[in-house]
Amino acid sequence: MSNPIKRFTLYIKAGSDGTCVGDCPFSQRAWLFMLIKRLKDQTTVATINILNKSDEFLKMNPKGKTPVLFDHKENKAVDDSEEICTYIDGLFPEPPVGCNFKETAADAATSKIFPSLCKMIMNKNTSETPILKQTLTNELVKVNAYLETSKYPFLTGDTLQAIDCAVLPKLLHVKVAGKAYKNYTIPNELESLAKYLENAEADPVFAETRPLDEEIICGWGRHDILKEL
Ligand SMILES: N[C@@H](CCC(=O)N[C@@H](CS)C(=O)NCC(=O)O)C(=O)O
């Protein structure tokens, strides 16, 4: 008997060969979320080559971005990582994973990491690089200070929670792309942050969704970046 179709298909960005797991932190967020909601058995993960999107994909998802979640039961596509988390949490409140983290202390400590990273990497005016590196470091100092007060291995829990799904993929980009393109290293004294990243890397759920470093470097490499090493 053939396998019945799973309820959900999660489309994520493919990597450099057009099929492996790509570097999209938003795709990783949605995938992590499906796993922490224990929906692995109900989810097919499909990689999308964003350089060659099929007509079928664009028909289902006219914005053409990843991630997209398709709910086969409801015949509905959800085309944004945050909306995917909200949609799934609405359908499956159990287990609770702390979805209402907006404007909490953990959110305030982590929400500017990615914009700061993007500014630093995309900057072409080398005289501004030191200040942009410092701005990113200031954001990481905030995360570290928050983690120092937390009694958990993750931001708000003993296991990965919704906020970790949003934050960890971006921190991975700081570590990998920051180093590869701007020779930026996370300061050693941010020990709680280092431990948080270590805890994530040791977590099987995070490991399952983690793009290879090469893919993160290659993904950023598609932008017009001034490498400063
Ligand atoms: N707000 C969206 C952002 C998604 C996004 O920007 N995805 C990028 C990949 S990281 C994308 O699909 N780019 C392909 C394109 O624009 O064609 C979300 O969080 O889901």
Automatic annotation (TrEMBL):
Superkingdom: Eukaryota
Per UniProt, what is one GO molecular function of this protein? chloride channel activity
Report the InterPro entries cross-referenced here: Glutathione-S-Trfase_C_sf, Glutathione_S-Trfase_N, Thioredoxin-like_sf
- Organism classification: Eukaryota, Metazoa, Spiralia, Lophotrochozoa, Annelida
Q: Could you tell me what this protein is called? A: GST N-terminal domain-containing protein
Q: Which residues form the GST N-terminal domain?
A: 24-89
Organism name: Owenia fusiformis (Polychaete worm)
Would you name any one GO CC term?
Answer: membrane
One Pfam entry name: GST_N_2
Q: Where is the signal peptide?
A: none
